[in-house]
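It is worth pausing here to work through a concrete case rather than discussing structure prediction in the abstract. The textbook approach is simple: state the sequence, then state the predicted structure, then interpret. We follow exactly that order.
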Amino acid sequence: MSVREFVVLGTASQVPTRHRNHNGYLLRWDGEGILFDPGEGTQRQMLRAGVAAHDINRLCVTHFHGDHSLGLAGVIQRINLDRVPHPVTAHFPASGRRFFDRLRYATAYRETVRLAEEPVAADGILAGTPSYTLEARKLSHPVEAYGYRLVEPDGRRMLPEKLAAHGIAGPDVGRLQREGALNGVTLDEVSEIRRGQRFAFVMDTRLCDGVHALAEGSDLLVIESTFLDEDVRLATEHGHLTAGQAARVAADAGVRHLVLTHFSQRYSDPSEFERQARAAGFEGELTIARDLMRVPVPKRT
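Step two, the predicted structure:
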């Protein structure tokens, strides 16, 4: 059965709290799992969330600050310890290769799994599968950072009333879908484009073109909101977003479900992030992320 959901493993920023682990997020997309930004404690959070090393097909690191990457060493070793039966691909900023190498070989262990390294050096498509295309866009942070976006290929939605009008039913529907035409009736005449689902993951960044490009038309946007709006100067100085900025990006991009995460330890009231996001004009579904929560990708429209 097709499963598309976002599993939150950690939601803190630089400093974890009693209730928030360092970053870590797993996207389940049909039969694949993509692990984003594993910070310290990710293995433990995976156990608590029911996520196994076997669930991981890709590792996507936005940048090499510790709260987004120090968990790589343990996760990679766990993938090998559990003898994950499929290859795993790692994407990360090319300028941080030395950090990735150090984390990959931080201690001695036996390599049993093929881990392919595919560093990101520029905006563009990183991979394509039958169920998604993985893209990257550069962000604005003190160290090189990239956000990620999954786009499902567009499909076709058959229109029963038009099929009936042309007398097409039963096995002939499948034949028409496969061949594109049947008895002079084309697929375009009895169907319409069904836009593929879109998911975007945006971590540490100021407002920039990359943020807007990643968010555009997303069904599910996961985006950092380290600061509240009254601390916008700090956010800009340190290369981060506020709750209001993130929400305005989502509103302008037509996002259906917005997930705010990566919260500074200075704030104790999560409801204030929701209040500021709504005040900024976002009217879609809104989630203030908590550790170990699961967020389904919205159903196709």
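Step three, interpretation. The chain has ten helices and 18 strands. Residues 205 and 240 are 5 Å apart (CA to CA).
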